[in-house]
Amino acid sequence: FEKEMLHLDKLNLVGEMAASIGHEIRNPMTTVRGFLQILRGREKSNKNIEYYDLMIEELDRANSIITPFLSLARNKPVDKARQNLNTVVKTLQPLLQADANKEGKYMDLELYDIPDLLLDEKEIRQLLLNFVRNGLEAMSPGSKLIIKTYVEHDGVILAVQDQGSGIAPETMDKLGTPFFTTKDNGTGLGLAVCYSIINRHNARIEVETGPSGTTFMVKFKVPTD
Ligand code: ADP
Ligand code: MG
Fold this sequence. Notes:
- It is a single chain.
- By secondary structure, the protein is α+β, with helices and mostly antiparallel strands.
- The protein contains six helices and seven strands; from the N terminus they run ααβαββαββααββ.
- A five-stranded mixed beta sheet has the order 2-4-5-7-6. A two-stranded antiparallel ribbon has the order 1-3.
- Strand 6 and strand 7 (about 215-220) form a beta hairpin.
- Helix 3 (about 85-100) runs parallel beside helix 4 and helix 4 runs antiparallel to helix 6 (about 190-200).
- The protein is globular, with a radius of gyration of 19 Å.
- The structure holds adenosine-5'-diphosphate and magnesium ion (MG).
- Adenosine-5'-diphosphate binds near residues 167 and 180.
- This is histidine kinase.
């Protein structure tokens, strides 16, 4: 538990710093992107067009790294509303499905009837996206990822189950630490953001892993009133 608190403190600090400079960095990036697009439109050389596309792509990648931080600042107002988790999952399905299919992988939903929860929809989308991204990245083409929702005891479970290569014991201890990654192009922010979102929803996380895959389970409390 102490280790968890340390992660969250570090994450809050990083979040606040990034949120305060995020906007300032984004504005010039937007300007640069705009002019790159104009130059690209005037360009005759295919080779140069390729370079412009690469530059724009990289700017978008940088932008997508900043975005999650903006939502991590401790003083960010929570925007929870009574909502059904299944609806959020279904809204995201086309996007996730397209992501999976692009890589020759499959995705299935197993959604049971569940009571409404108090959710920040934008954050829950981010949570799902991060879990699914990780699952897909761990899997070979032809394998399947399943998103499940169901009732267990007094709570609702959201589970993301992949058929990836599993997580090594020494990696398990570091999950959720900001900037921890085992990937060449990883940011090590996906799970840190997930853990922070889970914490802000007073939910709990459990991870099961083995050679045939990994399951991330988030347990939400059902509102009593
Ligand atoms: P990133 O994906 O950028 O590496 P994350 O915070 O999303 O950062 O994940 C941190 C690390 O946790 C990954 O580098 C990987 O080693 C491990 N991990 C997370 N999810 C999975 C998964 N579903 N299967 C295997 N390893 C995982
Ligand atoms: Mg990730």
